[in-house]
Design a protein that fits this description.
The chain is an all-beta fold. The protein has strands spanning 10-11, 17-18, 30-35, 40-44, 50-54, 61-65, 74-79, 84-87, 98-101, 108-112, 121-126, 129-132, 143-146, 153-157, 166-171, 176-180, 190-193, 200-204, 213-218, 223-226, 237-240, 247-251.
Length: 254
């Protein structure tokens, strides 16, 4: 996952303004939003262009990942009622390039490069247990571990820059982040407060330094607030984008 220099304030057919954050990075991640009622996606690219398309159906959980190992993140969705995963290798309207079943009803999906091979695959979080699979196909989890409690929201990412993804949790009731640096059972290696209970969390490599750090989308303000280090009380980067009940996503969108 990675965003570069955005030159000017953009006004696109979204019904809200898009402004340049005024920061630059190489191989840094960008942000996006998904409309949960229409399955319409809005992704910012490295050049500042907005990729606008439809993918999935209302009720799907949006995903982003590098499914074909080409270095660019593209959309996917997880259908929680059935565990159906549908992944697309381009950020355009169309059908799934990859689809399979993984997990059970009510599982929460997360994306990561668990084995460090440069390709993203899926995990699911089920009542404090994470189940990971290293290939994009139907099958049993190849690894599982205990971390967190029921109700935590999981996120995959490389949180220490070692080339391997692990898991972070957002406990909305406390507005607290818990990060574990390995895919093993245990306590958090890093934890801190961030945002408010109503904020939606995202993780990405916002400054291109190789590790993923926290950000949030605040619907009431129509802004993303991104931090480039773990544990900071305030954001390093603010980006006006959105406004309303969208679902935030992050990644390097090309």
């Amino acid at each position: 996952m990675r965003v570069g220099v955005v030159g000017a304030v953009l006004s696109v057919v979204l019904g809200f303004p898009l402004a340049s954050p005024g920061w630059a990075a190489t191989s840094a991640d960008s942000i996006g939003l998904v409309n949960p009622t229409t399955a319409e996606w809005f992704l910012r690219t490295e050049s500042g262009a907005i990729l606008n398309f439809y993918y999935g159906i209302p009720g799907d959980i949006p995903l982003t990942g590098d499914w074909d190992c080409d270095g660019i993140d593209t959309p996917g969705v997880y259908r929680p009622a059935t565990g159906h995963v549908l992944l697309r290798n381009s950020s355009t309207t169309g059908g799934a390039d990859i689809d399979f079943f993984f997990g059970a009803e009510g599982d929460v999906p997360l994306v990561g490069d668990w084995d460090g091979d440069g390709c993203d695959t899926l995990g699911v979080y089920r009542h404090g247990t994470t189940y990971i699979r290293n290939s994009l196909d139907t099958g049993f989890a190849e690894h599982s571990f205990l971390f967190g409690i029921p109700g935590d929201r999981p996120y995959g990412g490389d949180f220490n820059g070692d080339g391997f993804s692990s898991i972070a949790l957002h406990r909305a009731s406390l507005a607290r982040i818990y990060i574990r640096q390995s895919v093993t059972s245990g306590m958090s290696d890093v934890e801190f407060f961030y945002g408010t209970r109503r904020d939606q969390i995202v993780f990405g490599d916002w400054d291109g330094d190789g590790d993923d750090t926290v950000g949030l989308y605040r619907a009431s303000a129509g802004r993303f607030y991104l931090s480039t280090e773990h544990g900071q009380a305030t954001a390093d980067i603010e980006i006006p984008f959105g406004g309303g009940q969208f679902i935030p996503v992050a990644g390097f969108f090309g």
